[in-house]
């Protein structure tokens, strides 16, 4: 489908660097009903109706009013690439594409055009994906119109049983799917071709990647595609999910009317699931590619069957696993805080591989030290947990975090988005995940978590972490000849690390609160109320302004931000790297006497995040908290201004990891291309942020970076704070007086400098030759001065949206030149008023000239004739639909209140968006196209492969840039 994704449920992504620590955390018990016995099957939540039609089709119906006037529809098919015959490799995914290319009730392109006309955006809203074992179609529909709802179900009906598979449409779609396949080519794909047979232990999963094979996609007979659809798109393998602002009885009527007539084949093919055989011995694999942007280590222990356990006992086991997973992740994170860290990022976890299978894995993103330090750290930390378990204080913190997370989910039970519920029901259908509902789950957690003992958790982690054999150790990346270890060396290193003498972990005592005493409070000296916006403006005794917008959009969410002008612009070229990394460094060193690791432990059970940032021309603070944690959020903010911490070990750790991460980042052709585009557009200006180079970090010094941080953040002068969310003005005011009004407000510069960074003028063309694959990408950037206003910004955005419709329609659907890509940009006010609109169009090298010519032709049509009325109407309808829903989102209000301040516009304009949209006409866009697309002033950069198609490419890929060494 258009902008579809085929999903790999492999553990390459999942196992590589799982977990950032979940900050989850505790409300009174929600219900008093009797808890289940251990062997009881968990109940289905009362708010969802799960049913089955006589033909075997399963359905889920849940009335949910967030967002209002919208329903999320899903068609789920238990059929993916694993079911393809040899002549069908890639056709499960191709079938998904054909769902948008003609059906019983919608001719080719009619479906997408109709949905766009009712405000459904292609790609962002309307989408689908194909994986190994399933294909899922996602369709959000506005419910204001009964006709729209009826047609939404009609769309699902056609997807389920009414695709027409016109041969001309199939041939037209081949080029688009082949472009999608081409887009995925590169180092990861080349390495994965070697990894998957090992990762899946020779099972069918390694032979049936959803994207398929190019030769099959080029030559398959239409009958093969139709055969896949006949065999597997049948009601006994389908579910329809309906979640949203819709009457359940009406939803069920629609389901029965549209899907009750579907029939299963008389002699259905059995739906079998692929079996992953047991690994018989340990193996090592080393895979190298010169375009790999990073080096990665993966230690995968045996893959084991793991069906869902729908019982209460199973739920308890899941809680135990969650607890030890969090504690193990915390320990792994702490290893990166060393002055010479063993890896850039790493972790261990028990995770899903594919449906019905899971494995314990350890993985790391490697630094300059290579695989051996990472193996030592990962294996020894896992072994420490296996031998000695965890400490009582670690478990107590993890319990607080888990319970607080359940508390927040329970608090938001009536404010949860329909899409989240739909995803939950999808997992139930595909994997059997229980559906007890958050009311029950919170009760279970409150009853179970306190009683989970340290011995129980330690026993579980001992059972989870294998002690020795049948492991797969993979090293992949940009590995240089001469320093590339043999697979046997990796296996030996793992065994040696496992057998090393290890001692139990010592746990130190941590404070129980952030600040022992609050600061001497300031006061609120002025207060104003903006009734139209529901905003209260406060002036504090130190001059700081505070804008308060209490809402009922969420029950347990408070967003905070603060902004003023200044930023990196106040520092000269010699200081640019110190200024750029001043705030990230401060975050890595902590506050008061506490490191970031200490802070996580002190704040366990709370839901607080806060950090400062030093941007190019602005600077400020951003944070969030639950309603019960507002004071902690303000304490952390106060500490970040008044007591930033200095730590040379953590400084060295930060620099080492950042330098290592930058080491090979530009080996990826697309990364090097994007960096070249930015450099070319701005004439290699030194103040334009580029992709980091390792040598950049030699220019960062702890003393100077911290001095810059203190210069900008020792004073709150000029700051405007914004708070949006679930708080009461009367209750938050004393806290603001205590912490924000107590901030120093010494005299510092609070305006930015325009450093004169400007794009190059005239027509500039540059070709970049990088990469072994036959892939190209076209970047064209139009820039120039433009007067900023909300009206001009809206016209520019409308122009970009309309152009994207035409690029999709013409370059993709009609000409088959691209799979994705498009235009983006707009008008900026700071540091000077200007516009920038860029086109990014990945394509084949043979099609570069055609793509440029076609894109320019569409732009010229807009200049000469303006937009088609239907296209402009689609854009405006989508904007209005999105706006009406966004008005119930805290993040939308935060972004727009702060944006209004920064851009100097009246915040009341948030409320007149619909009127401004209505005022945008075709003539406005035609004039904008003439102004913003100046064919005498643009930068064109084109990425080409290093070698032309044919012999040169074969040699490049098989010789210089690829190397693989398996071993046992």
Automatic annotation (TrEMBL):
Molecular function GO terms recorded: metal ion binding; metallopeptidase activity
Keyword Acyltransferase on entry: no
Domain Peptidase M16 N-terminal: 63-182
The keyword Cytoplasm is assigned to this record: no
Leader sequence residues: 1-28
Keywords: Hydrolase, Metalloprotease, Protease, Signal, Zinc
Example GO BP: proteolysis
Pfam families listed in its UniProt record: Peptidase_M16 (PF00675), Peptidase_M16_C (PF05193)
Family affiliation: Belongs to the peptidase M16 family.
Protein name: Zinc protease
Native organism: Pseudoduganella lurida
């Amino acid at each position: 489908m258009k902008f579809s994704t085929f999903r790999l449920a492999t553990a390459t992504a999942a196992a590589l660097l799982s977990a950032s620590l979940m900050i989850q955390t505790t409300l009174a018990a929600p219900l008093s009903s009797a808890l289940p016995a251990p062997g009881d099957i968990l109940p289905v939540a009362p708010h969802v109706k799960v049913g089955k039609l006589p033909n075997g089709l399963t359905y889920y119906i849940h009335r949910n009013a967030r967002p209002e006037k919208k329903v999320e529809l899903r068609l789920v098919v238990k059929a993916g690439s694993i079911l393809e015959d040899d002549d069908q490799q890639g056709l499960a995914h191709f079938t998904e594409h054909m769902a948008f290319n003609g059906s019983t009730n919608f001719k080719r392109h009619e479906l997408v055009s109709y949905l766009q006309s009712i405000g459904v955006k292609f790609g962002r809203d309307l989408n689908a994906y194909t994986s190994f074992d399933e294909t899922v179609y996602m369709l959000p529909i506005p419910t204001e119109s009964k006709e729209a709802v009826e047609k939404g179900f009609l769309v699902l009906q056609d997807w389920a049983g009414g695709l027409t598979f016109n041969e001309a449409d199939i041939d037209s779609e081949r080029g688009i799917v082949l472009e999608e396949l081409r887009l995925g080519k590169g180092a990861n794909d080349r390495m994965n071709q070697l990894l998957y047979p090992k990762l899946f232990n020779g099972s069918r999963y390694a032979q049936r990647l959803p994207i398929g094979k190019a030769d099959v996609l080029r030559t398959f007979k239409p009958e093969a595609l139709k055969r896949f659809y006949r065999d597997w798109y049948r009601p006994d393998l389908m579910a329809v999910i309906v979640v949203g602002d819709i009457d359940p009885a009406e939803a069920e009527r629609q389901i029965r009317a549209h899907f009750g007539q579907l029939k299963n084949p008389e002699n259905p093919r059995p739906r079998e699931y692929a079996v992953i055989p047991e690994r018989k011995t340990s193996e090592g694999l080393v895979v190298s590619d010169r375009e790999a942007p990073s080096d990665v280590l993966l230690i995968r222990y045996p893959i084991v069957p793991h069906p869902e356990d729908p019982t209460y006992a199973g739920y308890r086991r899941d809680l135990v696993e969650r607890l030890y997973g969090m504690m193990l992740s915390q320990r792994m994170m702490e290893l990166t805080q060393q002055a010479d860290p063993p890896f850039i990022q790493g972790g261990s976890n028990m995770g899903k591989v594919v449906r019905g299978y899971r494995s314990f894995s350890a993985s790391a993103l490697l630094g300059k030290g290579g695989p051996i330090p990472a193996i030592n750290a990962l294996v020894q930390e896992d072994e420490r947990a296996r031998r000695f378990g965890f400490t009582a204080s670690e478990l107590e913190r993890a319990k607080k975090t888990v319970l607080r997370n359940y508390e927040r989910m329970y608090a938001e039970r009536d404010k949860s988005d329909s899409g989240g519920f739909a995803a939950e029901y999808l997992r139930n259908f595909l994997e059997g995940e229980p559906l007890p509902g958050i009311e029950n789950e919170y009760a279970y957690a409150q009853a179970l978590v306190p009683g989970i003992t340290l011995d129980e958790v330690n026993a579980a982690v001992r059972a989870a972490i294998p002690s020795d054999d049948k492991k797969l150790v993979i090293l992949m990346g940009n590995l240089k000849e001469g320093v590339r270890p043999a697979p046997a060396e990796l296996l030996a290193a793992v065994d040696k690390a496992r057998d090393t003498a290890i001692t139990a972990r010592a746990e130190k005592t941590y404070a129980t609160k952030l600040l022992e005493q609050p600061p001497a409070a300031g006061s609120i000296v002025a207060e104003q109320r903006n009734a139209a916006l529901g905003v209260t403006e406060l002036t504090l005794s130190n001059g700081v302004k505070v804008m308060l917008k209490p809402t009922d959009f969420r029950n347990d969410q408070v967003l905070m931000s603060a902004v003023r002008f200044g930023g990196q612009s106040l520092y000269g070229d010699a200081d640019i790297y110190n200024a750029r990394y001043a705030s990230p460094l401060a975050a890595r060193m902590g506050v008061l006497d506490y490191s970031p690791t200490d802070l996580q432990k002190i704040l366990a059970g709370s839901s607080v995040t806060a950090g400062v940032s030093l941007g190019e021309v602005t600077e400020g603070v951003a944070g969030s908290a639950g309603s019960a944690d507002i004071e902690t959020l303000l304490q952390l903010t106060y500490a970040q201004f008044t007591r930033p911490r200095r730590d040379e070990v953590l400084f060295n750790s930060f620099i080492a990891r950042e330098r290592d991460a930058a080491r090979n980042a530009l080996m990826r052709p697309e990364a090097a291309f994007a960096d070249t585009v930015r450099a070319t557009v701005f004439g290699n200006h030194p103040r334009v942020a580029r992709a980091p180079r390792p040598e950049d970090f030699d220019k960062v010094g702890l003393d100077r970076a911290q001095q810059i941080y203190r210069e900008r953040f020792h004073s709150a002068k000029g700051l405007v704070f914004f708070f949006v969310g679930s708080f009461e003005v009367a209750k938050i005011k004393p806290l603001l007086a205590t912490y924000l009004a107590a901030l120093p407000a010494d005299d510092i510069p609070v305006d930015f400098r325009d450093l004169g960074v400007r794009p190059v003028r005239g027509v500039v063309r540059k070709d970049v030759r990088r990469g072994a694959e036959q892939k190209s990408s076209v970047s064209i950037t139009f820039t120039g001065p433009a007067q900023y206003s909300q009206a001009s910004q809206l016209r520019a955005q409308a122009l970009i949206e309309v152009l994207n419709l035409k690029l999709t329609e013409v370059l993709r659907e009609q000409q088959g030149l691209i799979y994705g890509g498009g235009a983006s940009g707009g008008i900026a006010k700071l540091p000077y008023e200007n516009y920038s609109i860029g086109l990014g169009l990945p394509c084949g090298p043979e099609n570069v000239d055609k793509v440029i010519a076609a894109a320019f032709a569409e732009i010229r049509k807009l200049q000469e004739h303006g937009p088609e009325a239907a296209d402009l109407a689609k854009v405006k309808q989508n904007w209005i639909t999105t706006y009406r829903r966004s008005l119930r989102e805290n993040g939308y209000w935060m972004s727009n209140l702060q944006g209004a301040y920064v851009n100097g516009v009246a915040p009341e304009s948030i409320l007149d968006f619909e009127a401004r949209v209505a005022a945008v006409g075709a003539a406005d866009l035609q004039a904008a196209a003439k102004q913003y697309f100046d064919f005498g002033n643009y930068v064109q950069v084109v990425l080409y492969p290093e070698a032309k198609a044919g012999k040169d490419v074969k040699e490049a890929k098989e010789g210089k840039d690829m190397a693989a060494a398996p071993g046992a």
